[in-house]
Amino acid sequence: MENVEISFVGATPADASRLADDLAAYVRMHIDGAEVRVIGGSSDAMDFGATVALVLGTPAVIILARGIADWVRRQGDPDLLIKTAKGSVTVKGGLDMAAKKEIILAAFEKGAL
């Protein structure tokens, strides 16, 4: 099982909460057996508003990586910070969807995440 946290870099706390709720619903709908929680933001200066915490099996991680690029496109292209026990990657807005998908897939497949 893999623990994955996804935060929304640069989003206002309200936008981050909205994005987290929407991403959580997306994951619940598309990935069977995923454990999904939305964690509220902290009160410190680095507040991301909300984070989506996931517990996924290995096949589900690949499904998630492929699905995030499509989800991001529908959400106005927010910057994402994706963290696992192995590391983290920031996926910047402004990249085309194919580039985002490749960055996320490469990070998961090469064990960077």
Q: What can you see in these coordinates?
A:
By secondary structure, the protein is an alpha+beta fold. The chain has a single domain (2-109), classed as 2-Layer Sandwich (Alpha-Beta Plaits), CATH 3.30.70.600. Helix content is 42%, strand content 26%. It contains three helices and five strands, in the order E-H-E-E-H-E-E-H. It has helices at residues 13-30, 58-74, 97-109; strands spanning 2-7, 35-40, 50-56, 80-84, 87-91. A five-stranded antiparallel sheet has the order 2-3-1-4-5. Helix 2 packs antiparallel against helix 3 (97-109). The model has no long low-confidence stretch (mean pLDDT 80).
Write the layout of secondary structure elements.
Blueprint: E1 2-7, H1 13-30, E2 35-40, E3 50-56, H2 58-74, E4 80-84, E5 87-91, H3 97-109
Antiparallel strand pairs: 1-3, 1-4, 2-3, 4-5
Helix pairs in contact: 1-2, 2-3
Notable traits:
113 residues; alpha+beta; Alpha-Beta Plaits; five-stranded antiparallel beta sheet; 3 helices
Q: Give the SSE string.
A: EHEEHEEH
The CATH C-level name is: Alpha Beta
Number of domains: 1
Number of strands: 5
| CATH superfamily label | Ribosomal protein S10
Q: Largest sheet, if any? A: 5 strands, antiparallel
CATH fold group:
Alpha-Beta Plaits
Q: What's the architecture, going by CATH?
A: 2-Layer Sandwich
| Gap from first CA to last CA | 13 Å
Shape: globular
Low-confidence stretches: none
Please tally the helical runs, counting DSSP H or I stretches of 4 or more residues.
3
